[in-house]
Each structure stands twice: as C-alpha cells, then as structure tokens.
Amino acid sequence: MQWVKVLGGVVGAAAVLGLGIIVGHFAIPKGADSPAPSASASQDLDMKILETLMEQLDANRIRENLRELSKEPHLATSPRDEALVQLLLQRWQDPESGLDSAGTTEYEVLLSFPNGEQPNRVDVVNSTGAILFSCRHSEENVTGEQGDPNVVPPYAAYAPPGTPQGPLVYANQGSEEDFKELQRKEVKLQDSIALTRYGGVGRGAKAVNAAKYGVAGVLVYTDPKDINDGKSLPNETFPHSWCLPPSGVERGSYFEYFGDPLTPYLPARPYSFRLNSDNASGFPPIPIQPIGFEDAQVLLCQVNVSVHNRLELRNSSNVLGIIRGAVEPDRYVLYGNHRDSWVHGAVDPSTGTAVLLELSRVLGTLLKKGTWRPRRSIVFASWGAEEFGLIGSTEFTEEFFSKLQERAVAYINVDISVFANATLRVQGTPPIQSVVFSAAKQISAPGSSGLSIYDNWIRYYNRSSPVYGLVPSLGTLGAGSDYAPFIHFLGISSMDIAYTYDRSKTSARIYPTYHTAFDTFDYVDKFLDPGFSSHQAVARTAGNVLLRLSDSLFLPLNVSDYSETLRSFLQAAENLSVLLEQHNISLGPLVTAVEKFEGAATSFNQRIATLQEGTPNPLQVRMINDQLMLLERTFLSSQAFPEERYYSHVLWAPRTGSVATFPGLSNAYSQAENTGHDRPTAWDEVQRQLSIVVAALEGAAATLRPVADL
Amino acid sequence: MQWVKVLGGVVGAAAVLGLGIIVGHFAIPKGADSPAPSASASQDLDMKILETLMEQLDANRIRENLRELSKEPHLATSPRDEALVQLLLQRWQDPESGLDSAGTTEYEVLLSFPNGEQPNRVDVVNSTGAILFSCRHSEENVTGEQGDPNVVPPYAAYAPPGTPQGPLVYANQGSEEDFKELQRKEVKLQDSIALTRYGGVGRGAKAVNAAKYGVAGVLVYTDPKDINDGKSLPNETFPHSWCLPPSGVERGSYFEYFGDPLTPYLPARPYSFRLNSDNASGFPPIPIQPIGFEDAQVLLCQVNVSVHNRLELRNSSNVLGIIRGAVEPDRYVLYGNHRDSWVHGAVDPSTGTAVLLELSRVLGTLLKKGTWRPRRSIVFASWGAEEFGLIGSTEFTEEFFSKLQERAVAYINVDISVFANATLRVQGTPPIQSVVFSAAKQISAPGSSGLSIYDNWIRYYNRSSPVYGLVPSLGTLGAGSDYAPFIHFLGISSMDIAYTYDRSKTSARIYPTYHTAFDTFDYVDKFLDPGFSSHQAVARTAGNVLLRLSDSLFLPLNVSDYSETLRSFLQAAENLSVLLEQHNISLGPLVTAVEKFEGAATSFNQRIATLQEGTPNPLQVRMINDQLMLLERTFLSSQAFPEERYYSHVLWAPRTGSVATFPGLSNAYSQAENTGHDRPTAWDEVQRQLSIVVAALEGAAATLRPVADL
C-alpha cells in the first residue's frame, strides 16, 4: 500500500477463532448437489456456490500463504520477487486448483535503489566537518529478519543523489503552511536541512515544498506520537507489542505521479519511447532521506545528508490468471493486489496476496472439478512494482486501455487485507455500495459478537443516508493502491477492501511497522490477526463480492447510489453561490443536470425491476448491463485536468480546494478566490470547470436513459 | 460540403432515365409477402425488404424534395433554415411515413456574417485614394434567384473586419511555397494586398500564410481554368452550361478548426463556458474577401479592401429522427447531412437532403405499415451550420460523446449526393469497404451501360488490392463534411457517399457554381442530373448500406480490410529506415504490431465464419459485433496530437509530412528531417509517435483476439 487514507490496526482485542470456523450468518437456502456448469444465457448467481465459496475459504491456508509470501524480503524485481512470480504461476496453473490460464507480462520500468557500495548517510558534523554522530544505516536486528542481507536500507525512492550540508531546521510535516510559518518566524531556510515527520502531506511533497524555500536537503522521520500512540521505548515496541521499534524507518516512493516515470501513457514495453530520465518529471527536487525516531531525537546543529540513490531500468512482472466466463467471456471482473514489498512485507502487501491465493484456490478447485464456471470472466492479477508508484497496474492499464475500457465490469483491490481486527473498511465508488452491503450482511464478523460483518461495520463507520437511513460509510478512492489507474484513468468502478482498527483505541497514522524491516510474519501472526479470522472475513467479503459481480444475471451495481454523492457535491457548491453569482456564474445548469441524473437513475432502476419480474431476453439484459458497466466511464473528461497525469474522473480527481464539491470546481474556485482580483480569467476557469461537470452529468444521464431515446 | 477532396461533375453524358426505373441488378430471390416484424434475437437482414427499399426509392420524389429544399436561400440560422427544420420535423413525424420519433436540439454558436448596413468592398484606388473601380457587391442576377433579397453577399466567414489598402500582388494559391517564391523574387509583400486563387490550400490558410509575410489583406478569386475548364464568357456559362458565370463568387468558412469556435470540446448549450471571442483561435489573422473572376481580371495597382464582417451568437438547430431497433435498440447506425447552405444550395447540401428525405420516407412507410423494424436503431440527422465549420454535427458529438462512443456502429454521410453522373465515389475507413461493395454490386448504374454501380465504379476509380485484385478504390476521410467529428473525435467507422464525374472530361476543382448564388434547382435539373437517376443511385446505395448495417445479424464490417492500409503505411515507413536507424529508431516493433493485427484480424474472421456455420447464441453474436464496432475506437489516442483540436485517430489525422505513412510519424519525421540537426529532440518526437502507433495497433489486435485471452 503506497499511501494510506483510512487506517487500520488494533491489538489484542480480537478473539482467536477456530480455523474451521462455522459460517452462521448465511441467508442461503441449503440445497442438493451443485448444478453442473451451464452456459445458458440466463445463468444467474447460484447461492449454493456462493455458500460453498464462503465455507471453503480457510483461515489456516491464508496463514500458510502469508508465511511463505513474507519469508524473505521481496522488493520489486529482486530475485525473491521473481520467485514469487513463479509461485503465483504455479498456483494458477495447478491442474487441481488452478485457473483456465495464467501468464506474466514484463515491463521495463525505471526504479530507484540505494547504491550498494556507497550507503546513504545522515551525519551530525561540527564546523570543521568532523562527524559528531551518524544515523543508523539499517534497522536494529531485533527478531532476526532485520539482519537478512536482502533487506534494502532505508531510503527515499527517486530522491536525487547529493550531499547537502547545513543547519538543521525542524519543519513539522513539511507542508506549504509549515514552511510559510517558519518564514514568518524569520527562521533561515536557505541552505538548511529540514527535519520533517511523516504525515500531513505526501512524501514527495515535503521535498517539493522545502525546495521552494531554498532548503538543501530533507529528512523525514516517523514520530512515535503519530505511529505508536506515543510509545517509544524498546520494551514497549515490537516484538513486545505492535509498536514500531526506535530504529524502524519507513521506506517509500517519493515519485509524485504513478506509473513508470519514463513512459507516461505508454506501456513500458520494449517498443515504447522512453523519456530521458533528465526530462522525466515528478521526482523530488532535492535529496531526501528517511530516518527512525531513535536518530531523529538526537539530531541537532549542522547536519550532512549523503544520498547516493541510483535510477535503474528493471524488468518488473505482472502475473495474470483468468477464469473464462461461460456466458459473457468478454466481460471482465478484475481482482488484484501487488506482489512487491519494501522489505518482508508481511502486512503490506502479503496479507492481501495470501487472501488472493486462497480465493483463487477455492474458485480454481470448483472450476477444475467442473462444479462451476462464472457467467463473466474473472481476471486475477499480481502487480509488480506498486511500491515505486503503482507501476505494474498502471502499465497494464496503458497496454490494455481499449480492451479494458470496452469490457471491464469492476476492479476489486485487496492490498493490505488486515490492518487490525475491529471492522471491515471499504473504499469505492457509489455503485459498488449495494453489492458490498449484500456480501457484508451475509457473513459473520470475526469474534464473539454474533454480528454480521455489516452490523459490526456500522458500529465503527457510519453515516446517515437520505435514502437508506443509517448505513456503513464507504470511503473514497485516492491513489493509495493499484485501484488508482482503474478508476482515475479508465473510469472502471473500483473498490479496496480491508479489515481495520478501532479508531477509539489507537491514533496510529497507519500500522506502526509500515514499510519497515519489522513488518514480518510474526508481527501479523502475533499482533495483527492471531488466528487469521480477519483475513478469512476479508477473503469471504471480497470473494462474495467477486462472485456476485461475475455471476449475477444483472450486474449488482446500483447507479442510483451516485445520486447521493452528486447531491452532496451540489449542496457544497451552493455554499459558494454568493461569490459565483458576483462573477455571473450560475449553478442553475448544475442543479438541472443533477436532477436529470437522479431522474434517469430512478427510471433506470425501475426498468430493471420490471425486467426482473418478467423473463427478459439475453440482449435486454446485456443492454442494461452495458449501461451499468459504462456509467462510470461517462464521468471521465479529457479536458478537465490536462496537467494532472492520468486523472480524468470529474468526481474523484484530487481536490486541493477546501470545499467538498466536484474537484475541478473546488480547485478552480479556490484559485479564483485567492487570485481572482488580479486575474479575472481565474473565474473563467471556474465557469469552464462547471461546464465540464455539467456536460459529464448530462452525458451520464443520457447513458442511463432508455437506449432508443436521443 | 465544406471542403472538397474528390470532385464531381460531368455534363450531358448521362442518359435521362425514366422515373419508374426498373432495377435489374438484384440478386435477391423474390418471395411472398414481407414477414411481420420480429424481435427474435436472430433477426437478420431480410433481402425482400432490401429489394422493396431499392424499388421504392423514387427519383421524382427526390427531385421534388430538391425543388422544395432549394427554393430559397437557407443560410445557417436564417428564417428559411428554421422553416426547413419544421419541414424535416413534419416529414419525420408524419403518421404514415415518419419515424418513431423526431426532435430538434438547439446550439448557441458563433457565426460570422457581413454587416447589412456596411457592405464589404474591394476598390481600386489611385494615389489620392479616389476610387477608380469597384468590385461587385453581389452576383449578377442571371436566372432570377440571384436577385433574391435573402442572398448573402459574398464574404469570407470569420475573416476579421478591417480596411487594408496597398499595392496588389498576385500570390497564386496563397500557399507557403507561393509566398516564399515571391520573397525569393524580392517582391515587396509588406503592407500589400495579396490576390490569390481558390485551391491548393485551405481557405483560411491563405490568410495565415500571407500574414506571416506582412501582407495586409487578401483577395481570393475563382479561376476559370480551375473551375470552368477555361470557359469564362457569359454565353459559355450558366444558364448556358454548368460553368460558373463571371460574377460568381465562392463563399466559405475561413475558420481553421471545426465546431463552434467558442466552445471547443463542450456542447454549445446554454450551460457551457464560452471563450471570449478575442480568445478564440483559428480565425484568419487579416481581412480577406472572395471575388469573382470578372472582377479579378481588372484588378491592378493599389487596392482597398473593406471587410465589415461581424461575429454573432446564433441558435442553430439539428433535427434528429430515430427508428427504434427491434432487437438491439442500443446500437445506432447514424445517417446524416447538413441542412444549411450558403445561398440556395441546391447541390450543396440539398442534393443530399433530398436523398435523405426520400430514404427516410420509404423506411418510415415500411415502419408505419408494420412491415419492418430494423434490428438496430437508425438515427437520421439534419445538421445545422455545417458551412461555418461542421458546427451542428460537432456539437452533437460533444454533447452525446459517451453514448455515441458506447453505441454507434457507423456513420453514413451523404452531403452533396450528386456532383455529376459518371460514377459512384465513396470515402471511408477500410472496414466499410465490404458493405459498400455488396451494395454497389446489387444496384444498376444509371445510364444504358447495363453495368452494376460496382462495375461502373471500377472503370473510374480502381486500385490493385493484394487480397482482392482489381477493386474500386475508396477515398480517405478528411474534414470536408460532417463525418469529421465522427471519425476523428469519436472513432466511429464513417463514410461519405456521392455520385461524381469523369475526371477525363473535366478538370474542374469542384462543380463550378459551388458556394455561389448560381447553385440552384435548375442548375441541378438541367446540368447535373437531369432525370435524377444519379440521385436515385446514391439513394439506393446509401439505403442499401444503411439497411445492411442496421439489419444484418453480424455487422457487415470487415476489420481485415484495415490490414492493407497498415501494410501500405508500413511500407512507406520502411522507406525512411535509413535515417531512422541513424537515430537509433527501429521499425521492428511496428512490423511486429502490424503482423499481430493481421493475424488477429484473420483469426477473428475465421471465428465469425465458424459461428455463421452454426447457430450462435445471441450473446456470442453480440460479442463479435462489439469487437467489430469498437475496433475503430482503438485507433484513437489522446496523446498523439494534443495540439490538433479533435484529431485523435492515429491513422487518419491530417498528414503534412510528404511520406504516406501514419500521420504522426510522417509529420514528426518531416520536422526532424528539417530541424533535427539543430534540435535532437525532434527525433525523440519521431520515436514517441512511433510508440503511439505501435501501442494503438497492439490495442487493436488485442480487441480482435478471443475475448478471454489476456
């Protein structure tokens, strides 16, 4: 997981459950033998198959998967990463539990590594340059795994090499506001080394912001307050608790965009034009290096930072496996996770891959036995080089752009599957809410509460829906994992599923050993999910959603659930109307467009209901499903954010403006509010962004209206 | 028709045929009564219906349509243009011969008109400014129609107002090369008035090129050599022949792009952001005015040009009519033409609209009688404001972008349907070749030859195909009419169909009265197509193609026919390999991609053949048809030509480079060849364009491969 928005992790509270856990919450009528696979056009979701799937997803097998996956560090393109490619291939080609076919695609991509001969250094020096103190070059070997020769030393991937030296200035989180504040206080920033802590803004942004003030180099440390609920002593931290040891250092990519840096919009295949790395954009402008809090607390005065990172072209593999659809093989339900980690990566990403392998095993077994074949095709994916910037998944979407745009029904991402044992957490676009709810209602939550996953979820994350009343609240999709190119670049309905923690019990920014050498199997086994029941719960939820999407006659996507989002964005926009009206910008067309969407979605759902009562012919069903599948695409606009690489979704592109409305509108409004007096064209941009949103909503409504209406 | 690439017109040679002409070339088995409309998923093309359509398309009705349509001038948005909107609506809503539904969409668009109070002038003046001679302000009233008060005076739409004065310089066609040549000859261009003739380069380009050399104003005249095969005397010209009278002036749009100038990429609806017209681009940089050859021959010395054109926001309507598909209502076959003319517009565009109305009448009658309903939906369109820059059709594609991208099977354009009586002429993308050939083989050519349209066609335009041997040659689609936004912006397989002339008999650049006040009903009735048999031939061809596209179980598009284009582009590229290799650019990946496409297309056609032998289920047919429909989309790239408004098709975007290969590659190569020594990044652009083509071809091949292959 590259960047985390909703957090996970609670210790101890989860009851350890038996491995052969009884699934007690199914509302599925038990029946006789599973039916033979049928290729009839009316083939629909078979509740008995769904039940079988739920029963056979095995927590212990997930645990064994995780042990194997996290046994050794498997940094992208490392020998162990390549060995895992073979492991995945072997599993997916297994004659008894494999898929119809599996293969790899290799991309030659630009990664960034520390220099093996010349380690990065952070030294405190005196005025003559003599070294008074040196930061650690690696984490302390606490449990054995940290001493593995394949542990990559802490570094900031894509940070440029350089050896800046200067007085140390504490710059909080390294946000624009933080540096402005220092400037206001007349702290000298020119040629300084800024010490920042993780959080608040993206990794790369700390260097970008610092460089604007003449800062020469940046350090980033993990603050115990942000990650350990304040705990910082060795005996309070791993292996004594889930907390991060003092020597732990969060690695990460400092690349601003995603995808291979040298081949934006083109697959990083041998034939593709590559930018010269001097011309690539999105790298930090100045050297930057992460350190642990053990070192951070002793730093003072003059600091010398030596960064010797090197850019290297490497071959990174995706592994893809497919189960051919019986009825609509040209409709794809995609399910994926990345394979590469920073170190052993037990939590990130192996908790996800362990679930992926168990899910593909159970489905593969049903397939090979002849018990089942899905209505639509299922594509399993193990992405390479995610940690460097979602590279494998992005290159995949670039290479298969047309095919995916034509045929992809949805993308399910399960990266870190378990942050902690408290509750389900799902991020996704509104149309996936209903299918996730259906699944979550059908599965028991881990622990002894007796609640369904749904009823448990609603206790932790909920909102009041004008339509449904109190429901669990879905998070939105940023760019934290491989779903980003699917939703932002391709407009494919996407989701990310995990189990996470109770926010009342910890304020950790993310699970404490994130991207460190302490993220190991024992860490998961002892602290995150003893008994692996949360893993099993995620496997069941994701598997349930996957089967519903692949097998239901009508796609279980509810387009009407977009109406709530549009309403809330519209209401937020209406708070801007005073200033908008002063600049002759009317929200009237937006109101009309939202109403048209709502009306079209409601009528559309009624048409589905009517069809479901009768016996619709295969093409009537297909037409409806095409509308359901393609709705998300209608929200893309090539004109909205031409300067934002890949982002084109007018609802979910990054929002920097403070008003929670359509991002293009919010950002342009905030710009105009700040600069509009000097630059009247800033208000033109507000009007332009508003028009783009209106045109997209009108297009979305048009897609939902009866197909022979023009 | 805005800009003409393939020319039409031959006089006298066509035999006048009886109106109830017998169609003798059908290979259709005659049968009993037409079957009742069926909504079975296997509904296929009914040859009896096709035969009925061919028989009922009536030359005399087309003639009467044309008389009505061209009775009065109907410049875009004029009262008569609006009256024709009502005429179309009335026809398409007729209870006995109308469509399922019809309606209008209005766009508020920026047009350009002469100033009613202050006519544009071209005067020869002496050194004191006294007027020695004035050009005509309007054409001579030769047949009565030219005296109609609604005739718009000759002008260059979108030319800026201004009153430049200076010595006259003859600048041939006003191409870049022409001005360079004058400069070489040390002719003083600064502050001069350039006299240019139509042809060679686009209208607006003459002003753009002139302005670069300091020219103050431009005149454009129609040379009798280019348009009248040299004839220039009044008694040699209309109404005595089809030739242009001396006073005739070609009007036209001088806008460089297409679509509404103020709302690029957005529909020109009330809610859309509009550029300030000062910020709009694509208008001629200096005043320019068209004149007749009568005036051009007496011009000399000092000339004063007064242009008083005004930009005006006007409401322009499209009229749309739809026949709902019985089986796949969500698949659209579009058939359209523009409605607006410069003056009476008998040829341009009313010959096309007269055919459109006859075709919709016959199909509407079959529909209303309950004899027939197409498998797919048919959308008829009458576009507004085409003459100003394909505005109505472009705004339509902007407004319904998503829906059309998802569902449009093909676009058939019939603008000027008859240039002359010699032969069919079709421009289109390769997949439409086979359906056009099928239609053309089935219909008798006008005249007494006894040949089919196909066999007649091959006598005039042919090529040797490596696959088929000697076949009629299809032209390519530029941006001459409303097909442009469909093919270039949306990637919809498109075609333009017309009857045209024998090039051995005339070298006229286009039919002589093009865009003048002499383009009248009598002109068509007496000279272009007496008896209207060529109109009928076009109606039959276009109707035949339309019915095959709307009714065939498998879409009659042959994707394999793209292979010949790719091969020929590849061969042309291989001629560049010496210089490419010097810059380390290999064509290997392009060779591989072309081979992959060929292989995928061949296998795909084999799969169709196999399916056709059996009894494919409805979803198997739909899958194949989706691949056929969407192939054209895969050739679009948002990254290929970011500076070329709307153009995104990597095969058919405008090519300025001299090598007949992929336009992006050709253009970049030509740039690099000229500037590469000074600017090594020019070769990077060649490599980038090559990668874009390879990625598009790989994507196209992927779309054609078996759908469950990844």
Which features characterize this protein?
homodimer, 710 residues, alpha/beta, Aminopeptidase, Transcription Elongation Factor S-II, Chain A, 3 domains, seven-stranded mixed sheet, 21 helices, 16% strand, globular, disordered N terminus, membrane (chains A, B), TFR-like_dimer_dom_sf (chains A, B), hydrolase (chains A, B), glycoprotein (chains A, B), protease (chains A, B)
- The rough form of chain A would be described as globular
Q: Identify the biggest protein-protein contact and residues per side.
A: A-B, 64 and 64 residues
CATH class designation of the largest domain in chain A: Alpha Beta
Instruction: Give me the CATH fold name of the largest domain in chain A.
Output: Aminopeptidase
Largest sheet of chain A: 7 strands, mixed
Q: Whole-number radius of gyration of chain A?
A: 25 Å
Oligomer: homodimer
Residues in β-strands, percent of chain A? 15-25%
Number of separate strands of chain A: 18
Overall number of structural domains of chain A: 3
